[in-house]
Every structure is written in structure tokens, then in C-alpha cells.
Amino acid sequence: MTRGICTIAIVLALATTIARGDGFIYGFEGDVLPGEVGSGWIVADPCELGCSRRLENGSFILEWGDQGDIVNYHHWIAQESETQPPSLWIEWRFRSNQGKPATSSTCDAWFTINYEQLHDVAYMLGDAVVDANAQFGALDLENDAFHTFRLDSADGAHYTMAVDGVVFKAWEGQRPPYNSYIQFGGRGSCSGFRPEPVHNEWDYIKYGTLADGERIVSADPPAGYLDPLTHTGLDRFTVTFDTPNYVYVNQIAVQTTGTETPHMIATRRLQNGAPETVEIVLDRPLSPGEHTRFLFDDGTIPNVVDYSFIPGDADGNGVVDLLESACFQNCFGRPASTGHCLAFDQNKDGVIDDGDVLPFATSLTGPRE
């Protein structure tokens, strides 16, 4: 990813739930109030001033009446003097009945992650999530419904954040290693239309270590948007795992936006190639104007590789949405060969400029699914 050019994340390996083989360290199941013995949580800011809390049907519930107030809970993963986990996944399930107002993203709930070189916050409302800088996120989620959030970091520096299995941020931490902790809480104080009571419900919070040796780290051609002129007749591609690996035809499923879904003919090693790299052979080329998703599941860790010929679909997931809008702004005035800008060069003049504005605007298809 090119920092400052196009901040859309093109992600190859995506475990949408706790992957088989991942290690488990800790889980909060909403069966003990935070702060009580055995909960694992320290009360940093108590629930008071119109706030109430309770356990109900395996969930921890926070509610606010006619005014909001900050509530925050802290859990140590490892302090500076302790051994840090070698890798980390964190998953939590949350819902709120408070929709996102136009002017704020930080007035409802949050989940803070500190691990090795990364520090980030997921600000969550009933129908949206944004990161610490309000630069990445997912909008138009179903309001007042449970959504599953996840962070994955294999090395304490690079990491992804996802909601309901869709990655909305891939980034690299920039802070010195210190200690590791998570925090969660809320304030229930959004202005404008505000339900009463504001209802935050936490179903679970879990974390552990990532399994090794089963993840796809690259593809050729690279996943994401493909230039239909460069990749005419694409009927085979390669994937490279992080260790010597293999994948069989019956371990790959295919989804496409079109009617001509390709099928696998074979998977095979490249002649004299690295043992980590496998070629995927299709019975027909990928169709121009369509999005195709390949789901790899060898029984250990699910992986996803997305290819898209859809103009404007910079992250290759099959839709052109608000994340692409931010990317388009970063690409404006730059060569189409910069970062992920090629997807926006719909007039094929080699630069993202005024001539691409109207084609991009008409290509917007709505929120990410």
C-alpha cells in the first residue's frame, strides 16, 4: 500500500472468523460484569450519571438515558515486562441502536487496540465503523444489529481491520513497541436524533495468536482491479503462501457478479518454481466488467483473492463505494500508474484528471456489502 496516495486496502488473506488452527488466549462472554472478580477488566471510567449496565442473555449491556457519559474498561494483554504474543487476532461482536450523525463518528462506542507497534481505535455506531483518524471505515451497516469486528496482525506492525468479514483498513504501525492492551466503552452522546435509551450490547470479546503456514501472501497478477487491456484472456494465476503449501481444486470456491462463472481445471506447481507458489488454471478467462472472488479453504485458514474488471473498483471487491471516493481524491492529478489509481483512469489518458470525474461519479454503486 502506498501511504498518502491511495489508502484503500487490497487484502489477499482474510480469515473472516476465528480460523481453524488459530490459538486462543482470552475470551469475555458477557457473563461477568467488567470490574468484578474474574472478568479480566479494570474499570477506567465507571458507568454513572444516567448510565446503567447489566448482563442479559449472554451479553453485557450499557444504556444511557437523556444524557451520555463516558464509560471505559481496560484489559492488559501483556505489559512491557511481559512476553508479548508473537501475533494477534482480536474479534468482538457488538450492536448499537444509535445511528451515525453527519457531524460525528466518536459519540457512541469504541474499541481500542494497543499491540507492539500498532495503536488504533474502532469507533462504532449502530450503522457504521470508522478508524482512529476517521480515514477508513464502513458505512450503511444494518442499524441495531450485531456486527462482528476483527483485527489481525501477524507481526505486531502490519494489520487489518474488518467488519462482518470485509476488510476496511490495512495499515502499518509506526510507534515504538511498549505494552499490549485493549479497551472498550461508550458515551451514548450523539446529537440530533438520539434514541432513548441508547443501547450498546457487547456479545463477546476474544483474542489469540494467528496460526502460521497457511496464509496467502501474494498473487500474480496482484489481487484487486485489473486493466482489461493488459489482462485480456486471464485464465490462470498464481498464489504464494507464507510457507511451502499446496491447494487442490476441491478446496477452492468461486463467486462472480456475472453469469459466466469460471471453474477450476487444475492446481499445479510451476516448473522449477518455489514450493510456496501454486498455479490456478481455469476453464475460461475472467470476464471483462465483472468481479470474481476465489475462496481458498484447505481446512485450516480461509483465504480470499479478489479480481475485478469493474472501473472505479480500486480495492477489487466488486462495488464502488465511499472508500473509493477517498482514494479517487488522493489519486487526482497523479499518473494512473501510481498506487491503485489505474482503476479510475476510465478515459485511458494515463492520468487521473477532470476527464475521469464524471465517469467515476456514475460508477459509484453504493455501500460495501
Folded structure, characterized:
With 369 residues, the protein is mostly beta strands. It has two domains: 1-18 and 213-369, Sandwich (Immunoglobulin-like); 26-208, Jelly Rolls. Helix content is 5%, strand content 37%. It contains two helices and 23 strands. The protein has helices spanning 322-331, 357-363, and strands at residues 26-28, 42-45, 51-56, 59-64, 71-78, 88-96, 109-115, 118-125, 128-130, 137-138, 147-153, 158-163, 166-172, 180-186, 198-208, 216-220, 224-225, 236-241, 252-256, 264-269, 277-282, 291-297, 302-308. The strands form four sheets. Strands 1, 3, 4, 6, 11, 12, 13 and 15 form an eight-stranded antiparallel beta sheet that branches. Strands 2-5-14-7-8-9-10 form a seven-stranded antiparallel beta sheet, with no helix packed on it. A four-stranded antiparallel beta sheet has the order 16-18-21-20, with no helix packed on it. The longest helix is centred in the C-terminal third of the chain and has 10 residues, at 322-331. The chain starts with 25 loop residues before the first strand and ends in a 6-residue tail after the last helix. Residues 1-5, 7-11 and 13-17 have low confidence and may be disordered.
